[in-house]
Amino acid sequence: MAANKLCCTLAIGALLCLGFAVLIQAQGDKPVTDVCLGCICEAISGCNQTRFCGGGVCGLFRITWAYWSDGGKLTLGNESPQAEDGELPALFLSPSPHRIYFYNIINRPAAYANCVNDPYCAANTIQNYMTKFGQDCNGDARIDCFDYAAIHKLGGYGCQGELGYQYQTQLNSCLNQFQQIDVRSS
C-alpha cells in the first residue's frame, strides 16, 4: 500500500516537473522580453490602444501589412488570413462585446487589422518577426532589446540605419525606468 502511494506521488511529481519544463520552454521560445515589448510600444506610439489604421500601419505597435505577413499572418478567432486584397472577408462576430473587427482597410485583409490592433496578437506577430529577423544591429556582439527596437522600426534588412531622435529617446527613457530588470538579454 505504501509502495503504491509512493509510486503515485513520484508519478504525479514527474508529470508536474514535465509540465513546468514545457511551460518554461514555451516562454523561452520568445526572443523579446515583455519589458522590451512594452518599451517598443511606448516608443513607437505611446502605447495608444485606440484602434488605429493609417499611413500604412495599424495598431499600438504600428505594424505594416508586410511586417504582419513576415510575422506569420496571425489571426484572431476563426478569421482566415487568406482573404486577400479586394476581397471582403465574412463578418466574424466575437463573443466578447469589447472586440470590434475591421473590414477591408486600404485593400488589406481584415485579419491583418484585427490582429495588429489586438495587443496579444500584435505582440505574437512581433515575436515571430524577431525570431525570423533577429540580429545584432548595433555591433555590440549581442542581440538585445536595442536590436529588436531597431528591427521593429527599420525592418529586418535595415536595422543598422539611424533611429529617429524621438523613438530613440522614448525607448531609452522607458528602458532606464526598468534598468533593475535585465532588458538587454532576451
Question: What this model shows, in words?
Answer:
The longest helix has 27 residues, at 2-28. Helix 2 packs antiparallel against helix 7 (165-177). The protein starts with a helix and ends in a 9-residue tail after the last helix. The protein is mainly α and 186 residues long. It is built from seven helices and three strands; from the N terminus they run ααβββααααα. The model is unreliable at 5-27 and 84-107 (pLDDT under 50). The chain is globular, with a radius of gyration of 20 Å. It has helices spanning 2-28, 34-45, 65-70, 110-116, 119-133, 145-154, 165-177; strands spanning 53-54, 57-58, 63-64. 48% of the residues lie in helices and 3% in strands.
- Order of H and E elements: HHEEEHHHHH
**Radius of gyration from CA coordinates:** 20 Å
The low-confidence runs, each spanning 5 or more residues with pLDDT under 50, are 5-27, 84-107
Quick one: overall form? globular
Q: In which order are the strands of the major sheet placed? A: 1-2-3
Helix content: 40-55%
On the 0 to 100 scale, the average pLDDT is 77
* Coarse structural class: mainly alpha
N/C terminus separation:
48 Å
Q: Strand share of the residues?
A: under 5%
